[in-house]
Amino acid sequence: MVREMRCFALLDGARGRPTADMAALEALLVRISDFVVRRADRIEEMDLNPVWVGAKGEGAMPFDAVIIERMEQGACVQRACCCRRCSRFLFFSSLRSDRRSSGSASPCARPA
Known about the structure:
- By secondary structure, this protein is an alpha+beta fold.
- The chain is about 35% helix and about 15% strand.
- It has helices spanning about 10, 20-40, 75-95, and strands at about 45-50, 50-55, 60, 65-70.
- A hairpin with a 6-residue loop joins strand 2 and strand 3 (about 60).
- The protein is elongated and about 55 Å long.
- The chain starts with 7 loop residues before the first helix and ends in a 17-residue tail after the last helix.
């Protein structure tokens, strides 16, 4: 599927750029898929943008993610904010291949 994307030529080293870390990108896509399958009943929508893909051997990772949890009718907004924060934390902790700290105390910028 990755090779079918219109931008694949850029990942494959077009315009004198190094070849992207395709193995890391494919592994990231599999981890995202596994994450969604395990939580399909809870995830309403998910957006990863941008996703960084380094040169071969450098890895791949999303720089930002928004996950909106599917809410039951009548659920309060306060609970939704908390759940989004938890979902975002679960997402980043399950996808990051390196465990370096991002320097932020909370994965979500919203006040508690």
